[in-house]
Amino acid sequence: MSWLLLAAAMAPVPAALPAAAAVTSGNGHVPGAGGGISRLAPGLDFVQEWARGPFAGDRGNPIAMSSPVVATLDDYGPAVVVGDRSGYVYAFHLDGGTRVAGWPTYDGGAPIDSTPSVEPTGGSALDTVFVGEGNAAAYRTGGYAAFAPDGHMLWQTRVVEPPTDKNPAYAVQASMTVAELQGRPAVFAGSLGQEAYALDATNGATLTGWPFFSADSVFSTAAAADLYGNGHTELVVGGASTHGFALGQGYHSGGHLRVLDSRGGLVCHADLNQEVDSSPAVGGFLAGGATGIAVGTGSFYAGATDSNVLNAFGSHCNLVWSDTLDGFTGSSPALADLSGTGALDVVEGTDNGAAGSVWALDGSDGSTLWHVYVGGRVIGGVVTADLSGQGYQDVLVPTTHGVDVLDGRNGYLLDVLAPNLGFQSSPLVTEDPNGTAGVTLAGYDGADNEGVVLHYDIPGSNGALAVGAGSWPMFHHDPQLTGTTGAAQAPSGSPCDVPSAANNGYDLVSSEGAVYSFGQPDCGSAGAGAPRSPAAGIAMSPAVGGYWLALADGAVLAFGSASDFGSMFGHHLNSPVTGIAATPDGRGYWLVSADGGVFGFGDANYYGSPPSPSARIVGIASSPDGHGYVLAGADGSVYEFGDAQFYGSMAGRHLNSPVVGVTEDDATGGYWLLAADGGVFAYGAPYEGSAGAIDLAAPMVAMASTTDGRGYWLIARDGGVFAYGDAPYRGSAAGRTGGVPIAAAAGYSG
Predict the structure, then answer these.
(1) Weakly modelled stretches of the chain, pLDDT under 50
(2) Does domain 495-748 have CATH number 3.40.50.620?
(3) Domain 6-11+57-375 CATH (choose: 3.30.1300.10, 3.40.50.620, 3.40.50.300, 2.130.10.10)
(4) What confidence score (pLDDT) does residue 2 get?
(5) Using CA atoms, how far apart are residues 100 and 102, in angstroms rounded to an integer?
(6) Which of 116, 302, 426, 469 registers the highest number of CB atoms within 10 A of its CB?
């Protein structure tokens, strides 16, 4: 399953379901399930309208972590859809609980712990249903699947693991998030192996640039949002990590929060010492309404300081606040207006292995609004809705002993639904066909471990208001499981505050310091006229935004959100600077000089330099994790330092023209060398073509690669740009430089 450790992926799934009190009846009303009228909250009554189950066909493998969602599958009206661990997906009409024709459907036996997501495809007004199949207890089965409105399978895509994985996993326990990616409807989820896929929603085909190498298991369901207001959808997802090294990158024991672009490139990440199994929630809950990412962690690494933690990150993966709570935070947080003021708060359930509680936190700073204990363990995510119609959100908490309904203002208990049943999944709140608010629960009984689905009505309620602004009415907010409350944008609105890795294009810099931007934002140039020293290199700030220009005298000029971490200007240099490379987090950079001297600034650590290189050093490239770098000489020699791997070089071999640059492949840890005649030499990285056979008007001077490693740009001295593989051509500076030569280039493809 993982090149790292199978046990790490097993953690979130108990060997047996947590105990729930027994129920004894078949279809129809479930005895002990909380039917009838509530006596705890006058004016807020829950009437059980229908029940289905227990389902004898899923005995021992019932509905567990799959949450119910609402879908339109026929002309009769909205339906609730949910999966179980026997491989069935059920669909019942909200109005009356009748079975939708063609359902339940069966996937062949792979357990379904994922929550279905839905979206119309192929021009239909009816929904396609997407599920991840398999779980950590059955990690050799499953994959990605889509079902038509009538229940028949439309497509199934299997996970393909790298051949180096000696214990491959094919299960997809994370739910499939629906998003617009690369101009088409798509679905995304990580797997329990090493790969995370984005697929065309209509046919299951893998999108360009995918899969993303996650290196370890992913239980987290991704949020989808335009984090930076640039018209691109980013995916925000948690993941697991175990100490090891793969594809040129070192990994620690713990987990990650990652932001990925639409082509599977890493925009930014935050590393923790505990797994991130929680599913992120994205919205404007930070101070001033700034976009934030709320996410819990997991429980595998005993004693890890990031256990029991709920974190709030900014859109650049920067930690804004962090709270340590009283139990595991693997359940998914909700963003909700608990006070009726319009501000979003963060609500999180906890699980200490025996009991649970709920925390309501001020979204701006993480301070506690209220904290209450509930009737059982909280494994599934809480949901919220304005059930009373008074303009604030109430909280529904799934527990292993029923669903607690809490007043959102203070956490007071209003009711307990189905106290004799167990729930690991989130409730579903809907506007029912009669206009009132409905609540659907899906879980299991404690007698025979069989699945049940219950639906309640709240007489006199306003269903549209209940699920309106400020609500979080189902797992991951909506039927597409976007995990976001709405559109997001860069806090300052400046394009130069957007991470470079979130954009799609490249920048060229002339020897006089003029920057020519294509797809990337123009954040400024060195100024009018020639700078005091020729420009020697440009490096984009991938996770922050902006770029740095390096001059031959060792000076570094910062533009956009790129910070000035220092330079060699004013210090003695034995030879001029010839290149610059940024660390992946944008918090540091290296300069390299022609004699092989390496100078680190910010978090760019010094790992060594060649004592006597065989030829002039022409470039430097960071390893994928920033804990090493490679240098290239004009004779094709390559020198590796830190954790950068050596895959080969052109040293000692005939070259028609000298090497002028080196570019790292973040996807494999390999690299490319570029010669002045356009020849490209690939080492541990895919070869996508070269300009070696082209009669060039000017020699090549620089090379830049796409984030997925499946393409690159070659840049000529006159500003000409040549695109190969999946690198998009955005234009060139040919004819625009006034005869001033281009000196360097950098690029990202989102």
Answers:
(1) 1-16, 21-42, 489-490, 750
(2) no
(3) 2.130.10.10
(4) 33
(5) 6
(6) 426
